[in-house]
Amino acid sequence: MPEKDSADPKSQSSPIPTQEGFDGLKIRYLELTALFEINKILNSSLELRTILDNVLLTPMGRLMISKGMVLLNDKNSILSVKNIKGVSTDLLNRQFSLEDYPQSSLLSRDLQDRQEPFFEEFRKQGMEILVPMIADDNYLGMVIYGEKFDRQSFTQDEIDFLESLANLAAIAVDKAVLFEDVREANKKLDKKIQELNTMFEISRELNSTLEESKVAQILSFAIMGEMLINKCIILVERDGRINLVVAKGVQDAIKELDYSLCKPALLGMFAAGQNHVKLGDLEPDPDHEEPCKILREGGIEYLIPMLSKDRVRGLIGIGHKINGQEVSTDELEFLETLGNETMISIENAQLVEEMLEKQRMEDELMIARDMQKQLLPQTLPDIPGIEIIGRNVSSREVGGDYYDCIKLSDHLYGLAIADVSGKSMPAALLMANIQASLRTLVLDYHETVETVSHINSIIYQNTTLDKFITFFYCILDTDKRSIIYTNAGHNPPYLLHADGSIETLEEGGLILGMMPDVPYQSATRELAPGDVLFMFTDGITEAMNDKDEEYGEERLEPLLKNMVQNPLTEIMDGVESSIMDFVGDMPQTDDMTMLAMKILH
Amino acid sequence: MSEFSVHRKDMDEISVLNLDGYLDAHTAPSFEESLKQLVDEGRFKIIVNCDKLAYISSAGLGVFMGYIEDVRANNGDIKMSNMSEKVFKIFDLLGFPSLYEIVDEEGEAVDKFSNINS
What we know:
The structure holds two protein chains of two kinds. In chain A, strands 3-2-1-6-5-4 form a six-stranded antiparallel sheet. The radius of gyration of chain A is 49 Å and the shape is rod-shaped. Chain A has helices at 9-12, 19-44, 48-63, 117-124, 156-208, 212-227, 252-256, 263-267, 289-297, 329-375, 424-441, 448-462, 538-541, 553-563, 568-583, and strands at 68-73, 79-85, 95-96, 106-107, 127-135, 138-146, 232-238, 241-248, 277-278, 302-308, 311-318, 386-393, 400-407, 412-420, 469-477, 482-488, 494-496, 502-504, 508-509, 523-526, 532-536, 592-599. The relative contact order of chain A is 0.06. Mean pLDDT of chain A is 86; it is low at 1-12. Chain A contains 15 helices and 22 strands. Chain A is an alpha+beta fold. Chain A has three domains: 9-180, Beta-Lactamase, CATH 3.30.450; 209-352, GAF domain (Beta-Lactamase); 376-599, 4-Layer Sandwich (Phosphatase 2c, domain 1), CATH 3.60.40.10. The N and C termini of chain A lie far apart (152 Å). Chain B is of the alpha/beta class. Chain B has one domain (4-101): Transcription Regulator spoIIAA (2-Layer Sandwich). Helices cover 42% and strands 32% of the residues of chain B. Chain B is built from four helices and five strands. In chain B, β4, α3 and β5 (101-103) form a beta-alpha-beta unit.
């Protein structure tokens, strides 16, 4: 090895400068200037990259070195390659660990015996000198340089220069690493703040939204934006089954899956405390294999349970992140929190929807009940020699029972009783319909077949086939003391004779509203003093007790027979109390209506 | 209630959506409606001009996610322009710049679409 530059350092510090020593000083001065300059650059930059670039490039230019690299030490004392010049980029981020870290600069000849991978690589890359970067006893890493272009070995001055540079760089790197840590921490903090903002925004929005589907939409948008995901489904349990409330970006197979069948499979697959399932990692299990396969093939990778009161009530399904990154534990926790928060809102929304629906039905019932009350006659006409009473006990659900008694002339009276199909508002409307038809028609036709036929065609034209009316209509002639009647499918009224015999009035035809132009017949009955005509709706005979038994004709008939001698009010009271005794506390679902008349003399 | 509106401008094959106001969970459905409309009409070259966008939340960003795959599968793209620093910060934080092209001026985005065509 040439010895030309191996000048004794002592000679350079000699008080009398020789020419050689003077040149040395000049170089020294230049080096100091360079150090000063680089120090300025290093201290003005907090960018690690700029600092490391300068640490390599400055000596490379000044001493004509063709390659070099910087390795930084991490918290676990592992060195990784952070900057390279003139060597293959494969080396970047390569990691090494050493048994002991060189505390001062070493040349390749000092390192010949070291066998660790790092030194092998050092030799393989043709590196010549290693300079540690140490600041305040903190081992930050090392800079290594290759040979000088002229293949001369490094002089002590040059080594001093590289060491000084490394020391200066160490301080700057220390600061930059710290700064980078802070910046990283800040970024994490910003991300957390963003997550919190999302949580806050979602919960505010959730609290002001009372529609389940809208709540789920908001949740899906937030998840997709926050996590860079474009496939998202949300399943929510309701009324004992699960529904797909949101499906974004997934294949149709997921939308077509019959979720009513997979409720136990999907909601029951989470162990207590388990906050997600990765579909790809799922052990094969016949319980949930089928739906999970469809979800996975449709683009869903993770399922996150949405809990309410420790019970899985819904699921969030997400696809992969578009930027190719794995879903992190932090993100899964974020989803868990967001999902549970949303579940509470969804449950609230469901409750409110149910409450509103109940309230709406309640309101409708009230109106229907009022309507029914107003459609029934407030008073019945006074008929000489005849007593007539109508009663209606409206059930909670409001059936469509109707009765009427209309004076047609000085000796003719029309009596009608009807039971409209359905309940509540639809029934009340149909009841209004029949009342209007009847009241209009009876004045034109003093005969039952015509009247009933006309009403039938009106009802047929104005209703769907599932709406029908059982109807009994009779005209009382007080002069002849007789009735003519037509029964359109109604429970046959009883004609009770004073002698205790009883007959049912069945002549007529089909119920109203089923078919147009149905032929109807009528029949006439003579009446004698003491006779009672008892008309009723099926709410009477079908009144139910807690043993699921109906009151039935078999109880009504003997009761009426026994009471035929009594005043009409007592008969009505008797029937009513007999039924009340029979049903006990059972709430009745149908109206109970009676219309009866008694021939006094 | 937060104010938000979308104004659409069509230029040949390109459609520009100008966002105005606060795009958050509350207003996200209205933006989604606009994007959906474009996709339904088969207009896949979309520029979202954020000049007047005062704020965007994760839910707002979620709307972009829901359409990008569909749009790109149809040889289109969603590019964004004229973002304020504040709005860009949120896009950046959630990693959007790696997935979406975000340019300074609407014109640049138009040029980028036009260059692909030629």
